[in-house]
Amino acid sequence: MNEPRRVAISMGDPTGVGPEVTLAALAQLAAARGAAPILVGDPGIYEHMASRLRLRVRFAEWAPPAPLPRQGLPVRVVAHLSPRQQRPGRPSLAGGRAAHAAILEAVRLIQEGYADALVTAPICKANLIAAGLPVSGHTELLASLAGGPPVRMMMIGPRLRVALATTHLALARVPKALTTRLLLDTFVVVDRALRQRFGLARPRLGVAGLNPHAGEHGVFGDEEGRVIVPALRAARRRGIDAHGPMAADSLFPHVLAGRYDAAVCMYHDQGLAPFKLLHFADGVNYTAGLPFVRTSPDHGTAHDIAGRGIADARSMAAALRLAVRLTGARLRRTPRRAA
Which DSSP string corresponds to 16-67? Predict the structure, then answer.
C-alpha cells in the first residue's frame, strides 16, 4: 500500500479566496484516502475561515522535524496577521509578504524531504510587488527557488492540456521573446512531463503559430517560418512527436478530438482563452519542469467575493487530486462539514 503523500498547500493571498477554497476543497475530498495535507500560512486565518464555512475541523501547529500530528490539520506557521491585515477583499502589504513567505516555506519543506508535492493557492502579484517582492508569478518564482531549470506553465483539464511558451508577458513583447531555443526547450519540457508524470509513452504535441492563419506563408508575419519551424525540426530530431505550426483556431478542435495529447501555445491568452472556455471551474495549473509536483487552481484571488463563503472550490479540489495522482497516491484525512 502506498505511503500517504504529504501535500504542502501554501496559503496564497490571505485577503483573497485561497484559504476558503483550500478548506472547502479538502472538505469535498473527505471521502478519499492516501495523502496528508500540510497547510502553510497563518493558523488564525484558517480557523476563522473554518468557522465561516461551518467546518468541523481542528488545526495543529507543526514544525519539522516533528512527525505530523495524528489529530487535526497540520499548519506550518509563517505569519500571525492582525485583523486589519487579513480583512477579506482588502489586500495588505503584510498579507503579500505572508503569501510570499508561505511559498518559500512550502518549497523548503519539499526540498528538505518533509513534503512530497506542492499546491499553491492564488497570490496577488501586484500586492507582492507593492510589498517589495518583484514576483511576476508563481511559475517564475518556483523556477528560481528550484535552481532555475526550464519550466513551463501547463493547464490540465479532463478534456484539454495546454502548455505555454511564454506566460506573464506583455503581448507586444511576445514576438521578440520567441526564439528557436525557447521553443525547443518548451517542447522538451512538455514532452518529458507528459512521459514522466502523465505516463504517456510517446506524447503528441500540436503546436500553434503566433500569427493569424499561422502566418499564411509569411503574409501575416514571419515568426512561423523563421522561429517555430526550426524549433519543430530540432525537436523531431530528438524524438519528440511535435506537429505544426497550426492556426490556433484550427488546432484546438484537433486536440479535443484526440489527435494530440497537448496544445503548445505561443502566449498566455492564446492558450488560456480556449482552455477556460472548457475548464473554467475544474482546470488546474501545473508547472512542468520542476523537480517536484506543483499544481494550483486555475483562478485568481477573487477579492470581490473573498470571505463570503461562495467561492467555487472545484478548481482547488482538482489541483489537490492532480498533485496526489502525480505523486502516486490518493487523498485522505480532511475536514468534515458540520451537521
Answer: SSHHHHHHHHHHHTTT--SEEEEEEE-HHHHHHHHHHTTEE--EEE--TTSP
- Between β-strands 117-120 and 5-10, what pairing exists: parallel, antiparallel or unpaired? parallel
Burial of 54 (0-12, 13-18, 19+ CB in 10 A): exposed
The CA distance from 46 to 26, in Å, is 12
- Of 197, 202, 226, residue with least CA distance to 214: 226
pLDDT for res 331: 56
Q: What is the DSSP string of 218-275?
A: TTS-SHIIIIIHHHHHHHHHTT-EEEEEE-HHHHHHHHHTTS-SEEEESSHHHHHHHH
Instruction: Please classify residue 324 by burial: count the beta carbons closer than 10 Å to its beta carbon, then call 0-12 exposed, 13-18 middle and 19+ buried.
Output: buried
49-89 pLDDT, tens per residue?
999 889 989 999 999 999 999 888 999 999 999 999 999 99
Give CA–CA dist 273/279, Å, rounded. 10
pLDDT in tens, 24-40: 999 888 645 667 899 99
Cα–Cα distance, 26 to 320 (Å, whole number): 8
Asked whether the predicted pLDDT for residue 333 surpasses 70, the reply is: no
Task: Give the three cell numbers for residue 298.
Answer: 486555475
pLDDT at 30: 64
Mean of pLDDT values over 130-154: 87
Residue 336's pLDDT is what?
38
Task: Return the C-alpha torsion angle 5, 275, 288, 169, nearest 10.
Answer: -130
Residue 254 dihedral angles phi and psi, to the nearest 5°: -70, -40
Distance, in Å, from the CA atom of 254 to the CA atom of 208, rounded to the nearest integer, reads 11
Phi, psi dihedral angles at 286 (to 5 degrees): -120, 135
CB–CB of 124/13 below 8 Å? yes
pLDDT digits 0-9 by tens, 275-331: 999 999 999 999 999 999 999 999 999 999 998 989 999 999 999 999 999 997 555
Of residues 200, 10, 225, 35, the one with CA closest to residue 118: 10
DSSP 143: H
**Residue 163 pairs with which residues in a beta bridge?**
154, 264
- Reduce the DSSP state of residue 209 to 3 states and report it: coil
